[in-house]
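Human: If only I could read C-alpha cells as easily as an amino acid sequence. Take your time, and here it is.
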Amino acid sequence: MKTRLALVALLSLPIIASAFSQSSSESFDLLIRNGTVVDGSGKRGVKADVGVRGDRIVFVGSAKSAQAKTTIDAAGLVVAPGFIDVHSHTENSIANPERRWNEGVIRQGVTTIVGGPDGSLSPSQIRRLIAAYEKNGVGTNVAFYIGHNAIRREVIGLAHRLATPEEMEKMKALVREGMEMGCVGFSTGLMYEPGMWSNTDEVVELAKAVKPFNGTYDSHVRDPVQRFVESDQEAIDVGRRAGIPAKIAHEKTVGLQNAGKNKVIIKMINDARNRGEEVVTDQYPYDGAATSTLTGIIVVPPEMRAGLDLKAALRDTEKRKQIKQTSENGVNGGFAWLKATGYGAMRITSSKDYPQLIGKYLSELAKERKMDAFDLVSDLVLNANNPVGITLGAIKEEDVRELMIQP
C-alpha cells in the first residue's frame, strides 16, 4: 500500500528552537498525533506528534496526555513541512478573490510559492498583487522575483535592440526597487520578448544589482532547444560574473535532438559547484512542457486579427506560405513557438480525429509521410473536426528520471 501524505499547511510555520522535545503534557491549539514526521533534513521519518500554538510549531515528540483545541489523527500518514514551489505562475490568479486560497497548490502540499519567474513582474505589478493579497487574504505564502522582461518593457518597450546606458540605469533602479520591496532575486525569460533582444552583459549588470540584497538569479534560459547547452552555460556565467547564486529554471531536455544530453548539463553544473559556484536547477516532474493545440498558439498568422478563418487561409497556397514564415520565424523575427522549440519538440498528446497519432512527434510524422513539416501541420488542421492537442516541449521519460535523482 502506498504511503499517503498529510498535506498540513500549518507546517510551513516557523519551528521554535525548543520544539523538539521528548514528551509533553502541555496544551496546544492544534495537535497532530501519530504521524510519521519527515522534517526535510534527509533523515528517515519518525513516529511523532506535532504541537502548534498560535502561529508556531512548538513541539515535536511524544505528546502523551497533552490536550488541544483541535486534534488530527495522522496515523498512517506522513506529516511534512510545506513544499516550496520555486517557479510558480499562480501569483496572478490568486489575486482574484475567488481563487485566493491557491487550493490546487495547497492540496499538493505546497505552502509557499515563488512568483514572477521568467522575468514577468515589475515593482508596480508586484505592488498591485500585494495590495490584492492584503485586501482579500491569500492561501499560500508568496515570495517574488523582480523580472527582466517586465522592467525592460517599461523602460524600452518591445524595441529589438540593446539598452542604452541611460536605459540601463533606469532598469537597475527598478531592480533595486524590487529588491528593497523584499524580492528574493532577479529572474529572466530570455526566450521571450523583449528579453530575447538583450545580451549577456545587460543581464549581468542587472543581476549585480541584487547582490547587496543577497539575491539570486533565476533564468528561463535563452534558447533551451536549439542551443540547449550554450543557454544553460549562459545562466551559470551570469551568476558567476554577478557574484550571486544561479538557478536554471525548469531544467529539461526538450526535443528529440537533445534526448540524452542531461549528462552534459549535469557535469557542467557539478563542475561549477566544484569550483565553489552556487548553481542549482529546478525541473518539470513530467515529460512535456506547456500544452496547446495546433491552432492555439502554434500557427501564427502574419496579421493576428480576430475572426480570421484559419482553415480558409491554409487552403490558399500564398497565404499558407506567409503563415509558415511567421509561424517558423516569428512576426518581424519575434517569438514563435515553432521557432523556439521546433517540430522535433512537439508531440501529439490528444486527438479525437487522430487517436492513432497520440505520442507521435510532428517531425517523425513529417518524415514518415515524406512531406514538409508545416504542410503536415496544415493538413492535420484542415482534416480535423476537433482540436489536436500537443505539448510544446516534449521530453523523454528517462531524461526526467535521470535529472530528478540528482542532488
About this structure: The chain has 14 helices and 17 strands. The chain has a mean pLDDT of 92.
